[in-house]
Amino acid sequence: MTTDLAKVAKDRGIEYFLISFVDLFGALRAKLVPASAIKAMQRDGAGFAGFAVHLDMTPAHPDTFGRPDPDSLIQLPWKPEVGWLAADIYCDGKLIEDCPRGVLRKQIARAKEMGYQMKTGVECEFFILTPDGKTIADQADTYYKPCYDQMALMRQYDLIKEICDAMLALGWGAYQNDHEDANGQFEMNWHYDDALVTADRHVFFKYMVKTLAEKRGYRATFMPKPFNNLTGSGCHMHVSVWKDGNNLFEDARGELGMSSLAYQFLGGVMHSAADLCAIFNPTVNSYKRINAPVTSSGATWSPNTITYSGNNRTHMVRIPEAGRFELRLMDGATNPYLAPAGILAAGLDGIINNRDPGKRLDIDMYKDGHTVKNVKRLPLNLLDALRQLDKSKVVRGALGDQMIDSYLKLKNAEWNAFMSHATQWERDHTLDC
Ligand SMILES: [Mg+2]
Questions:
Q1: Integer CA distances (angstroms), 404 to 55, 66, 230, 244, in order
Q2: Confidence of residue 349 (pLDDT cuts 50, 70, 90)
Q3: What's the pLDDT score for residue 201?
Q4: What pLDDT is recorded for position 297?
Q5: Rounded mean pLDDT, 166-183
Q6: Which of 68, 190, 362, 383 reaches 20 to 30 Å from 203, CA-CA?
Q7: pLDDT in tens, 412-431
Q8: Ligand 1 centroid – CA 244 distance (Å)
Q9: What is residue 334's three-state secondary structure?
Q10: Which CATH superfamily groups domain 106-419?
Q11: Sorting pLDDT into bands at 50, 70 and 90, what band is 1?
Q12: Ligand 1 mean position to 41 CA, how many Å?
């Protein structure tokens, strides 16, 4: 039976609901709706003009409607009179192809038909900056190798604690927080779960971190590479496939304790990784994180090549222990729904077509990568990535031509806007030509 949100509001003291969705670029949009109006909104959805956000629509299109999923309800821990709801976007009574949450739900339904459930855990790295976004907020955070720096971590204790307390109160199973490899950079981890649950939490986490940072006079950013000399912000995902409460990736007899199904799934991810880069690494700035030169800490912690390994962080895929792999390709700008949808689409293709991930590489890819031949490389910039996505039969086949064409149209426009803008670097290198 569907949850009655009007009743929930009464029972839990909710005065307002945020009916919220992310568009194709992952930007968070919402309407704030008083509890007295939620009954009709739950049935019909909240109205939005599609052209006004990153959806491939014109001003002449009819309204879209964000229909909230009651199962996604989160009462804001810092403002419990507000209830946040993830919504799916409808137009003319039909779920639109461009709705990122809908795209993920369709892949989840495909997996379910095959008897599978994907679970994901996500590691969202972010920077805490001054309000103008120009520099890191903590001016004492200058150590050249700052990963796990206790002093820098504890100088942000009040903010980190507030976010972690919120996750604990929400029952996400928060379990660790640290200072990451760049000055001003942090990561907070919570327990893995069903891919849709994690995706909704991922959206909410970004909103929560930015909001609580703002409350303390900071600006939090998930931008992939905000500073040239510092490590960028990744969004690694840990992936496993389950059936009836059993992890199908686990097999004690398999290589590294992974089943043949796990290697097929991984084979699919390796096969489509470059095609999915435009979704995993969706901005101009993303390509300054992958393919990056060494940072001031000594490593970029991001991949350049399509390779996998055991517990070795210099490859695109790491198998840290039996039963799961970690895909290290995505960055902080990735769409929380399209990223897992892409992984699942690629993985199901791997299972269906029995794709072989090839041989595991156990070398230090940063140091000895040049010694291996015939290793596939990742696209070098957004335009290459968009062209590659355009040609991808697997991704088009799974996610649908309409969504991919909308995405390419909007992202190519973004690339063209970038290219029409001359930078200081070009002046520095060309003025005296
Ligand atoms: Mg990390």
A1: 12, 21, 33, 33
A2: very high
A3: 98
A4: 84
A5: 98
A6: 383
A7: 999 999 999 999 999 999 99
A8: 31
A9: coil
A10: Glutamine synthetase/guanido kinase, catalytic domain (3.30.590.10)
A11: low
A12: 39
Task: Judge whether 412 and 381 are in contact, CB under 8 Å.
Answer: no
Rounded distance from Cα 178 to ligand 1 centre (Å): 9
User: What's the rounded Cα separation, in Å, for the pair 128 and 137?
Assistant: 6
What percentage of the chain carries pLDDT values higher than 90? 92
State the distance from the centre of ligand 1 to the C-alpha of 180, rounded, in angstroms: 6
Ligand 1 centre from 400 Cα, in Å?
Answer: 32
Question: Measured in angstroms, how far is the CA atom of residue 137 from the centroid of ligand 1?
Answer: 19
Q: What is the Å distance from ligand 1's center to 282 Cα?
A: 19
pLDDT at 50: 87
Cα(110) to ligand 1 centroid in Å equals 31
CA of 121 to the centre of ligand 1 (A): 12
CA dihedral 234, 224, 118, 321 (to 10 degrees): -10
Q: What percent of the chain has pLDDT over 70?
A: 100
Contact in structure between 69 and 54 (CB atoms under 8 Å): no
Main-chain phi, psi angles of 133, to 5 degrees: 75, 5
> In CATH, which of 3.10.20.70, 3.90.550.10, 3.40.50.720, 3.40.1080.10 is domain 8-96?
3.10.20.70
pTM beyond 0.70, yes or no: yes
Ligand 1 center from residue 187 Cα (angstroms): 6
Distance 295 CA to ligand 1 centre (A): 15
CA 415 / ligand 1 centre spacing (Å): 28
Reported in sequence order, the residue ranges of 28-116 that DSSP labels E, i.e. its strands, are 28-34, 46-48, 64-68, 74-75, 82-91, 94-95
The two domains 8-96 and 106-419 share their CATH topology (first three levels equal)? no
Read off the pLDDT of residues 85-130 as tens digits, 9 standing for 90 and up: 999 999 999 999 999 999 999 999 999 999 999 999 999 999 999 9
Do the bridges between strand 317-321 and strand 308-309 make them parallel or antiparallel, or are there none, so unpaired?
parallel
Query: pLDDT per residue over 298-329, tens digit each?
Result: 888 888 899 999 999 999 999 999 999 999 99
Q: Is the pLDDT confidence value at 366 over 90?
A: no
**Domain layout of the chain by residue ranges:** 8-96, 106-419
